[in-house]
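Hi F.,

I've been meaning to write this up properly since the lab meeting, where we talked about keeping a consistent format for the predictions we share between groups. The idea is simple: the sequence comes first, exactly as it goes in, then the structure tokens exactly as they come out, then a line or two of notes. No screenshots and no reformatting. I'm using this chain as the first example so we have something concrete to point to.
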Amino acid sequence: MHATMAYQGFSTKAIHAGQEPDELTGAVNVPVYLTSTYQQQEIGKNKGWEYARLDNPTRSALEESLAELEGGTSGHVFGSGMAAIAALCTMMKAGDHVVCSENIYGGTVRLFDKIFVHYGLTFTYVDAGDPAKVEAAITPATKLVHIESPTNPMMSIVDIAAVAGVAHRHGVELSIDNTFLSPYLQRPIELGADIVMHSTTKFLNGHSDGLGGVLIGTKPEHKERFEFVQKCTGGILAPFDCYLVLRGIKTLALRMRQHDANGRVVAEFLSKHPKVKQVFYPGLPSHPGHAIAARQQKGFGSMMSFELGSKEAANAFVRSLKLCYLAESLGGVETLVSHSASMTHAAMTQEQRDALGITDGLIRLSVGCEDVEDILADLGQALVGIE
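Output, unedited:
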């Protein structure tokens, strides 16, 4: 029954898609298959499994679940989000060109500019919030447009459908990093994206206890290419980490609703606080991307940034936190605070950060699932001491 049922609702898919009871025991959780190899019946005959780098039943369950949740045709998990981005670039060859959002995760920029340029790929960074600028940057060598929406950490919004239309008119594919919102709050494939990427470390896992990344494709050639990359490079996600993401996905809808509810309250609080100079959160009507975000997202999520004016003010704030943690990463059930200039975007030059507005006084906030009154109390007391 479970193997043939078509799941319609998101929460039902999150709990059941790819996670049918184990046929051998009836266990309702997917077993963690801790094996490096599989017994084969005879030469050329096996039960569908040969070697763990090629495939693993726990990994297959996770990949099926993620593809279903994003509305893609195949999912491919890797050892980290950056490993997934690296696998994405293997679609290209020397001489190919990528148009990329200018305001994206600093690690992505570092990978492109410090690693892949040495293999003959070229990258042009543009304000993808303006589809005309994306179009102007496309050349005959362009093979991919890669974006984030909302962007990290400035929370700029890209009109995904408009940029997909531009890319497709030129025969170029569109990939999008959907980490900040998860498939619960945003479904880029329905808006025209060809490939969706996540750091599963973040909201998909949701508990800050495992690294991972995924690429979700929409075409047979994506499946063929990314499976080949997994086989050849071996940067796959280990079975236990796959289990942790499967565990997280089952509560994804519940968590994202709480993240979203808390995020809206915290953004409103910060926007009215006299010590906060500016809040970057698409859920605020004052945000320039608010209307587009409201149209293409199911909610506004829990990611935001705010400006305190100086590194000294930012440091005074983070030193005073008691409930919230100053830490890399995001998307856990706990509230996480980061200083983008010295943490997530330290790989960028000062000139690059200045151009994007990533100042020394900018704080990025991943609002967790704690009682929102406790989050507000901690943020409030930490802001009091700022000069």
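Notes:
DSSP finds 14 helices and twelve strands in the chain.
The mean pLDDT is 96.

If this format works for you, I'll send the rest the same way.

G.
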